[in-house]
Amino acid sequence: MPVPLDEYPVHQVPLSMRHMATSDRNAYDRCYFNAHDRTGDVFLVTGMGVYPNLGVIDAYATVRRGDEQYTVRTSDALGDDRMDQRVGPYRIEVIEPLERVRVVCEGAEHGVAFDLTWTGSFPTVEEPAHVMRQAGRVILDASRFAQVGTWSGVLEVGGAELTVSDDRWVGTRDRSWGIRPVGEPEPPGRSASEPDEGFGFWWTYVPLRFDEFAIVVIAQEDGDGNRLLNEAVRVFPPASGRRAEQLGWPEVEVRYRPGTRHPETAVLHMRSRRGEPVELEIETLGFVGLNCGPGYGGDPDWSHGQWRGRGFTEGVIVDMRDPAITGRIPFGVVDHVARATCDGAEGWGMFEHGTFGRHEPSGFTGWESVAPGSAS
After folding, report:
1. Coil, strand or helix: which one is 70?
2. What percent of the chain has pLDDT over 70?
3. pLDDT of 259-295, one tens digit each?
4. Most buried among 35, 152, 223, 372, using CB within 10 Å?
């Protein structure tokens, strides 16, 4: 049977919009948002995803405040109407495509609730195709767009209500779709008996909002430092008439806290199309561990796309001082509130970073390797 989306001229393949063009179990379509008030004291990370070949829809909302990370997560069977983006107490309303989006979570009883409206400050950025292989098999093949913007509305965390206003609250968002590991873990097969002892993953994703422009940088490297994904672009307001400007090959210097892999500051060296140097200096503030509630890789209690039954909703509170939690964070990607300067201008956004296993340019020789010095 057709579904409501079949009424629109959006088909890409000769199939109903009920079906994906691929039969890969890992097919997904997901959005991500974050919001903060530029202090690093409060940081919201939230998103929703559908997994058509698993028949699942889910969402999460995580707020870091002080030393606690509050999360509401909800999941259900995927329905037929993809235009209706809601699951449990969570919903997304597209007010103006690529410009304004309303995100609502009625999860106060679980510690997090909000009614927030996103307004894009600059045009969206289409990122390069992202492809990864493992033992010859494609495990990630995705498209994504990103945007920086502001927020307004109300946020409630742990019973405290915060007013969110566009003049103070900023954030970034993205939507991606394609194939990536989701749902219940697949059998490890050969990799379980023949692990890659030299494995290394280094990831840096930096969307930043300045008053006059936005900058989006994305870079992924393997253990040897080979660049597998690369993008650096500066975006201007539509009224300026200026096209997006590529900033070449960013060289990234990260200063880690001694005895850890926690990034404290970073400098990104880039160049304009005219060859002029463009330098970003970044300071990280508060952060959210994506594997400590939101369900990203390495979270032992929740993974996107898992079947949790119909009408599933739960709330969890994580003590970020718990040794079990602090020991988990370095083995996942972490989103940091970021303050940045570029040519004298101040900007705000996110410094998303993860490095585990080997990364020779950073001096990390294996899983247990950390930055020189003793952690304070």
Report:
1. strand
2. 99
3. 999 999 999 999 998 999 999 999 999 999 999 999 9
4. 35
Q: Is the pTM of this model over 0.85?
A: yes
- For the 26-184+197-362 domain, the top CATH level (class) is mainly beta
Which amino acid appears at position 251 of this protein? E
Residue 90 token pair: 């969570």
Tally of residues, the chain: 376
DSSP state for residue 185 in the 8-state scheme: P
One-letter amino acid identity for 97?
Answer: P
Residues 119 and 150 sit within 8 Å (Cβ to Cβ): yes
Q: Would you tell me how many other CB atoms lie within 10 Å of the CB of residue 283? A: 16
Q: Residue 174 has which token pair?
A: 């993205």
Sheet holding 334-342, edge to edge: 245-246, 227-235, 214-222, 200-209, 345-357, 334-342, 277-289, 263-271, 251-256
21 φ, ψ (degrees, to nearest 5): -70, -20
Cβ(32)–Cβ(333) below 8 Å: no
Phi then psi for residue 369, to 5 deg, are -70, 140
